Amino acid sequence: MNAPMKARDIMHADATCIPADETIDRAAEMMRTLDVGALPICHNDRLIGMLTDRDIVVRCIAEGHNPGRIRAGDLAKGTPRWVDADADLQQVLDVMEQNQIKRLPVIEDKRLVGMICESDLAKNVSDAKLAEFISAVSVPH
Predict the structure, then answer these.
(1) Keyword annotations for this protein (predicted)?
(2) What is the tens place of the pLDDT at every residue in 76-115?
(3) Among 85, 93, 84, which Cα is nearest to 137's?
């Protein structure tokens, strides 16, 4: 019998952090270069938040802030959601669905080791579970 799939089995292991003291314009450049819509925000190699392309537009640009002056850490609000690398696939889905998030950092020994996004789930869960996930995270906040 196969062992249950763990977060480490489906994550992208090459997650790139943006330092908390880096500017938002630099974050946007990193997102373009990496072709991602979100970056984990780290301070001393510890996850302190997530920065999305939507955060840049809504919480920086639309509010009239200069993206060359605002720091990624300034937009890190609340406690970031994450899972341990050994969390099983159902735990991953539960955290993402309950918090209506589409990207989930994976932590091991208090360090970021990867990210899980919708495309990772699409490759690793049944169509029914994927439909349930999409329905759960797509509900307006």
Answers:
(1) CBS domain
(2) 888 899 999 999 999 999 999 999 999 999 999 989 999 9
(3) 93
